[in-house]
Amino acid sequence: MNGSVALLPPAVLGVLGGGQLGRFFVLAALEMGYQTWVLDPDPMSPAGRIAHRHLCNNYDDPAALRAMAETCAAITTEFENVPATALAELSRALPVRPGDFAVGVCQDRIAEKKFFRSHDLPHSPCAFIKCASDISEAKKNADLLPGILKVARLGYDGKGQTSVTDWQEVASAFKSYDCPCVLEKKLPLERELSVILARSDDGSMVSYPVIENVHVNGILDSSMAPACLLEGEQSALATKMAGRIAEAINYCGVLAVELFVSGGQLFVNEMAPRPHNSGHHTLDACNISQYELQVRALCALGLPQPVQHYSSVMINLLGDLWYPNGVYQEPNWGVLLARPNDEAGNNIAAHLHLYGKDSARHGRKMGHFTLTDSNNAADGNSKALLARAKNLQRSLTGPAVVG
After folding, report:
1. What pTM, to 2 d.p., does this model score?
2. What is the chain's Cα-based Rg?
3. How many domains does the chain have?
4. Is 336 in the same domain as 198?
């Protein structure tokens, strides 16, 4: 069900998923005067702990969905792996943004690649492996190796992915997963980019400057915004490609599109029907955050054009940071929060965001910090700021400051 009537505070907004992205959505909604409900099966859900109500149920629980349909004014999601069927059921009673079709495409890599193909969006060569015989068919395309075998559904942050160099490895990895997969050719990457945009149900659309990302072990490690010294034509093309996707899928909400630069060409990698980790900097460096845009798109409010005031670097803080030598140790936040100015004066600020998760563990996103540089307002040259951020990241495992 779609509608263009603005939903105003204190309407109840529901979100499926209660991780850090849901938490930031709830914070934005609360600041704007809305009430919030979170549906998430985790009793320690970071978003559920600050919402007006936390429904600690599975995403397809009939009673929970019925309660949300009867109470909420609109529904969104904070990650793509909620059942699209649950969103479809809710949409019969109230606005759901993004809709079940868009989320359904994004949560299945096979559907996503077919969508890219049907809309002539350049992407890495790939093959769909649903059964053993599909491997024999894929062998006819020798250009797929070396590659990465990825599970079609429920893979994220490097999980459900295996690098493969020959067909025996493909067969072995597929057998271990025992589910539909996508085999993607590894492209020689020059850069990894993302575009974050917001689109309303009337088709109006705004976007942030292109972001440059670095992944480590399949998990986002750092993001520079704007992308460092990106050619104007590439920046415009990346934004245009993301906009084409949003229009083709009739998207409403915040959408993140990840892209590769290889051989000087842009390739679409994947899309996320929600705010994105690479957009965390919008909390501190922009006139409006991606999370407020998510609230605005959901509630059919106006979408202000984002403006980035400062160059920024975002660093993810994984649970490993709490165990530098295999023993629990609280990171040395004092180093980060001691106002990391440089010789030029008070131009650099550090912003720490911890997600309120109950325990730190390997690969778990526990928080992030952002450095903003007011002397280089969105000039697209953040390499020095990145070096400073990485030094700060390393110093967090040093001895605590006493006194």
Report:
1. 0.94
2. 21
3. 3
4. yes
